[in-house]
Structures are given as structure tokens and as C-alpha cells.
Amino acid sequence: MADDFTYNLSSNLGLVRLEIQDNNPDEWIFSDAEINAFLAMYSDDVDWAAARALDVIASNKALISKRIRLLDLTLEGATIANELRIHADRLRNNSAAFDSFNLPRSIKEDLP
User: Fold this and answer.
1) Total-model pTM
2) 5 located within any domain
């Protein structure tokens, strides 16, 4: 994994980190380059990029184990993978709902 981590909530990269809770500079899951790749895959759509990142975590047993350790929880890997997929689906649905209104991105970001 590349050795770069930034957490700036005024950037899309930081918003993806916030959404997937990859915000610990000592124990991060994705490098900046990897999150930027997710953003590039989905035209800088934060929700879709975060959903893809959650899908990747859910599909990777090693990342699931790391996520459990970061949260200091004891959970079955399959359970956490399912919850991550549900969260990813919710993000996609939120993004699709906003897109149906054809709102500019800056307005979407201001909505609750």
C-alpha cells in the first residue's frame, strides 16, 4: 500500500474517508491514491466512491479483519461484510435520489 494519508474534510477524498470511517492516520485502510481512484471511477461522486470502497472492504477478509480491529469490536466477518454492503447500497440510493433532482453538486453537499 502506498504510504500516503490525508484527512481534509473540505476535499472529496476527505469526505470519502469520513463516510467509510477511514480517518485514523496511524491505521488507515486505503491510501489517498486508492481513494482518488474510486473518485475517478465515479466522476468525483463521493457517495458512489465511498460505496465502492465499502464493497472492496466487504469483499476482502483481510480488510474486514482490519476494520474490526480499528473499531475494537468482536464481530463475525460475514456479519460486518453484510453491514458494509448495506451501507454501500444506501450510499448509492442517496446519490441516485440527489441526481434525480439535477441539483448542482455544491447544493447537494449542503443538503442534510
Assistant:
1) 0.68
2) no
